[in-house]
Design goal:
The radius of gyration is 15 Å and the shape is globular. It is mainly beta. Helix content is 12%, strand content 46%.
Length: 155
């Protein structure tokens, strides 16, 4: 089960240097958007992912792929290939009294200039009670426009 909140970020509002945090280079494409079936290259790891319906809470299953299988399936994908760098930024949420992780995606290619932060939670209650850092912008969790699967279909 995936439980997350998603926020737009303005580059100029980020209060630190992203180079100070670990990052992954991600390329992903969609074989189907309903249900969501995607293939992803994350550095040197490859996956096929199934995601169920939902915006804040939904099922998610990952299956490992080989590089060859990824390359084969990538050719069958519809729409835009999404490329981004994902920065992993620790966050202490004092309201929830928990250590969380911000996954800050900096998009390239067609979506260059888009910055999205995702925070995953262990419960829907925690997601609902989350207080985002001051530098987070608009909460777009319930706006499907910012789901990568929808972005893959954008003109």
């Amino acid at each position: 089960m995936e439980i997350e909140r998603k926020y737009l970020i303005k580059k100029e509002d980020i209060p630190f240097d992203l180079k100070d945090y670990p990052a992954h280079i991600i390329e992903q494409a969609y074989l189907c958007t309903e249900p969501v079936v995607r293939v992803r290259k994350d550095d040197d790891d490859y996956y096929m992912t199934y995601k169920g319906k939902g915006l804040k809470v939904r099922e998610e299953y990952n299956l490992p792929l080989t590089a060859d299988a990824y390359a084969h399936l990538l050719k069958k994908a519809d729409g835009n290939v999404i490329t981004k760098t994902r920065y992993l930024i620790p966050l202490q949420d004092n309201n929830l009294n928990k250590d969380l992780l911000i996954e800050l995606d900096v998009f390239e290619g067609k979506f260059e200039g888009l910055y999205l932060a995702e925070v995953e939670f262990t419960s829907e209650e925690d997601a609902d009670n989350f207080t985002p850092p001051y530098w987070f912008g608009e909460d777009v969790t319930l706006d499907g426009t910012y789901h990568n699967s929808r972005m893959s279909q954008a003109n």
